[in-house]
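Translate sequence into structure tokens.
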Amino acid sequence: MTAIKVPPLGESIVEATISRWLKNEGDAVSPGETLVELETDKITVDVPVMASGVLRKRLKNEGDVVKVDEVLAEIEEGAVSTNAPAAAPATAKAAPPAAPAAQSASAPPAATKPTGGSEARVSPAAAKEAATRGVDASTVQGTGRGGVVSKADVIESGSAKPAAPSQSAAPSPPAARSPQPAASGERETREKMTTRRKKIAEHLLESQHATAHLTTFNEIDMSAVNALRERHKDRIEKETGVKLSLMPFFVRAAVQALKTYPTVNAQIDGDSIVYKHYVNMGIAVASDAGLVVPNIKDADRKTMIDIGKDIVAIAKRARDGKLTMDDLTGGTFTITNGGVFGSLVSTPIINFPQVGILGLHKTQDRPVAINGKVEIRPMMYVALSYDHRIIDGQQAVLFLVRVKELMEDPAAMLLG
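Result follows.
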């Protein structure tokens, strides 16, 4: 017997929840096939089979919480399955070409079972997601091993219908999702929290309990950077394919400010302060599964165009549910943009164990005093939440002032 164990799940992640078993006891298994899906607070992990044989015993059930290196199942290598072949592919193979039209008026399960060729397979998680979204899983192109349709494929299929959103710090707000109640009444429903939502809640509480949270504010006149974008955005998009949004400017400004005030880019390890001589810039992204913070590796070594490309790429992976563990680990500082949803001011929570997070907000025309005269300018409030254990108030204020100076003089920032 070969034991199938919970694999390493990534930085600081020690447990996961069994989302779906893709094989039953007695089923034949082949190298590379996904045996079970595990859900963490950040990503969904596929646990593959490494040898041919038969799944003899599943030691855990769906919904169980398991820890790294815990045994999930036992595989008898070289054995031959005596289970009858799955009926779904055979039925699908024999289905006449007109079957999809007939299914359109049938019961909902038709949207969760493959109706294509015999190779078409839909994972249970994908079937559930398809039913929730009203998507016919048989029409979704599978990108999993052997062409299996995954949950991420269904999400991507559903998100591909509307026009792609313009580049920003985060995608458009996820569509409201109907709760699946365990108990319901006329005026309220009850829905069990997902493992990911519970872990996000625990992480945020840990941040507030483990750090000396404090927030300082400033405001930025966005006139200069808006004018610069307006002059160059068409040329940049034509030459590079990148829509020049505000976020690459803020990433560049934050990187330069972090070089001036390196404590804001540091971390606490016991009674030591670890200074990071690089910047992996976290970008908070809203996804269907909740808030995630993928990061741009070595942002301090990249041009603004490269940063813009990376932001588009990680935001798309977040929306499609295809973030990797590398995307989500190793961040040193974070930027969150509530302004894309209309937030005017907020106090962001530090992405622990980092010690600082920059919050951006909505740009709004406001009257301001310029050289003794009142003018209407596009103004944005910015906030820096920081860990007061190692960042003094003076450093925090000066860091935010430096970001303000660079954004109000973008030419100096680009030359910097």
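Note: The domain at 197-415 is CATH 3.30.559.10 (Chloramphenicol Acetyltransferase).
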